[in-house]
Design a protein that fits this description.
The chain is of the alpha/beta class. It has 25 helices and eleven strands. It folds into three domains: about 250 residues, no CATH class; about 180 residues, 3-Layer(aba) Sandwich (Rossmann fold); about 80 residues, Helicase, Ruva Protein, domain 3. A five-stranded parallel β-sheet has the order 6-7-8-5-9, with helices on both faces. A hairpin with a 3-residue loop joins strand 1 and strand 2.
């Protein structure tokens, strides 16, 4: 906050509702901005900004400044109070006035449009706070979010305004970013009219500002001044009227002892159907490690269901997965089985599989990609959305690429529909590791990695035999040995291009064509001749 603007408003010193002067409101905004800056410095020093910084080409403090200014601009416009006082506040609220806001409204016409675009984008700083909270068991997200609200409210109460018109904006803002608000506390607040009224009326807004500069990185101390973590709901709850005034409602509370845990009977899966699916999984050639991982996941889900039966604390669990490995190693086949298994276990409502890739998610025009991703996700609801070669969403290198927009939208929708959607991303191992680092929201949502190894020579030959058996062919031993020679004779580059089981299928189809060309020359081919694959059929 610049000294020039601060002095200007100290001199004005008009009293506001709740005994707030403009001077105290600027002090509140400054203290909250400094705590936001400290948390950004913390994220930067701990390495959380390294990858986003490379992609965005800006410092984390610049992103904080332009994000905070954008929220304040949109808030003021929504509240229809975007005058000289608000513009001066917005310009003074941050260290770098990157939107170029001026008290006289001489900023560029694009400033408001840029502010709206930024406020609608996924909140990367809040995403990083959530990532840190998960990894370090901290509670940064709620504190960061609360400090932003304090600054909004400080602007809303300038010059005696009652701040009521800003509540609608705050509600809308919370709804937009709710999927990214990872708050560990069991007493997290509901940001509604009552919450705002309490924050202002009890004086904590000003009291917290006095404590922020002393709190440093002491989360527990700051939490004492942060209503987001308080559980002090009045016994007579407050009700907001249409004019955003508050009255008390009488509510009788009957005290009763806590009930004993009662065993709930969850819906039992169809055992026969589940057994058939597991048999199909176990019958796949090779993939021993993959099968073990899937069985472990199934066991974990079963235990979770048993815990629910006895009202034990729920275990937080993500069902999204990363399938990594070369093409043709069975990733799509296993994904289809996982979808059906999840349906039988009650995780998904339909158990369907929708397969897509970059082309199915990314549009060629501004604003169309998010709509395209939303449409695909809505089609996949109730089942598994399988994104093949998912790394292509993050590494095109084009300046006008909309892949990152697709990822940001996907991350949010995964949270919005986490109760009836499972996303499986697939691709080469190294490329998938880089892909997960390209977006901070991906790492926290994909915590199950399953590696699909290349098939061995024997496994590829077994896959060929299975194709032949299912199609009613008998393969002569000489033909099998010739096929083995093709498999073992490939170098590393040829093996990669061959594509594992996919290459075997292509080879099988060529052999079937050769066999048909041979058999059709017979005058009256016998059943044995029609079903035999000989050495001469192998190219």
């Amino acid at each position: 906050m610049t000294e020039e603007f601060l002095v200007m408003f100290i001199l004005r010193g008009k009293r506001t509702m709740g005994n707030y002067t403009n001077q105290s409101l600027y002090t509140i905004a400054g203290a909250n901005y400094r705590v936001l800056s400290r948390y950004c410095d913390m994220l930067d020093s701990e390495g959380y900004w390294e990858k986003p910084g490379e992609i965005l080409g800006k410092s984390i403090n610049d992103i904080l400044d332009i994000y905070l200014q954008s929220l304040l601009v949109c808030c003021a416009i929504k509240a229809k109070r975007y005058g000289r006082e608000e513009r001066t506040f917005i310009a003074a609220a941050v260290d770098s006035n990157l939107l170029g806001i001026t008290p006289d409204g001489l900023e560029t016409p694009e400033a408001s449009a840029e502010a709206e675009r930024i406020q609608n984008a996924p909140p990367i700083l809040i995403q990083l706070c959530g990532l840190r909270d998960r990894e370090k068991n901290s509670e940064l997200t709620g504190l960061f979010f609360d400090a932003i609200l304090n600054i909004m409210l400080a602007m809303a109460y300038l010059n005696g305004n009652n701040g009521g018109s800003v509540v609608a904006y705050i509600n809308g803002y919370q709804n937009r970013i709710e999927a990214f608000l990872f708050v560990k506390s069991n007493t997290e607040a509901i940001i509604d009219d009552k919450y705002i009224f309490r924050k202002i009326s009890v004086g904590d807004l000003e009291q917290s500002a006095k404590q922020l500069d002393e709190s440093g990185e002491d989360f527990e101390r700051y939490k004492k001044s942060c209503l987001f973590y308080k559980d002090d709901t009045p016994k007579k709850p407050l009700r907001a009227t249409a004019s955003v005034k508050f009255v008390e409602e009488e509510e009788k509370e009957e005290q009763s002892p806590a009930p004993e845990p009662v065993a709930k009977e969850p819906e039992e899966p169809d055992k026969d159907a589940l057994d058939d699916l597991l048999a199909e999984l176990n019958g796949l050639i090779g993939l021993a490690g993959v099968k073990e991982e899937i069985h472990s996941l199934i066991n974990l889900i079963k235990v979770r269901k048993l815990r629910e039966r006895y009202a034990l604390p729920d275990m937080e669990m993500s069902y999204h997965m990363v399938f990594s490995g070369s093409p043709g190693t069975g990733k799509t086949t296993v994904a289809r089985l996982v979808a059906a298994i999840y349906k039988e276990l009650g995780i998904l409502s339909k158990g369907t599989l929708l397969e897509t890739d970059r082309a199915g998610l990314v549009a060629g025009y501004v604003g169309q990609t998010a709509l395209k991703v939303k449409e695909v996700v809505e089609k996949a609801l109730g089942g598994v959305l399988f994104i093949d070669e998912a790394y292509a969403l993050s590494n095109s290198g084009a300046g006008n690429d909309f892949g990152p927009e697709a990822l940001d939208t996907l991350v949010k929708l995964m949270e919005d529909h986490r109760n009836d959607l499972v996303v499986i991303v697939a691709g080469y191992t190294q490329e998938m590791r880089k892909f997960l680092k390209s977006n901070t929201g991906l790492v926290s949502r994909f915590n199950k990695f399953i590696e699909f190894p290349d098939y061995t020579d024997d496994e590829l030959l077994d896959i060929f035999r299975s194709f032949a058996d299912k199609s009613g062919f008998v393969t002569e031993e000489a033909a099998c040995e010739k096929i083995r020679g093709i498999i073992t004779g490939m170098d590393e580059a040829q093996r990669r291009e061959f594509g594992n089981a996919r290459g075997i299928r292509n080879l099988f189809e060529k052999i079937v064509v050769n066999q048909a060309n041979r058999v059709v020359l017979y005058d009256k081919p016998t059943l044995e001749q029609l079903s035999c694959i000989s050495e001469s059929d192998v190219p």
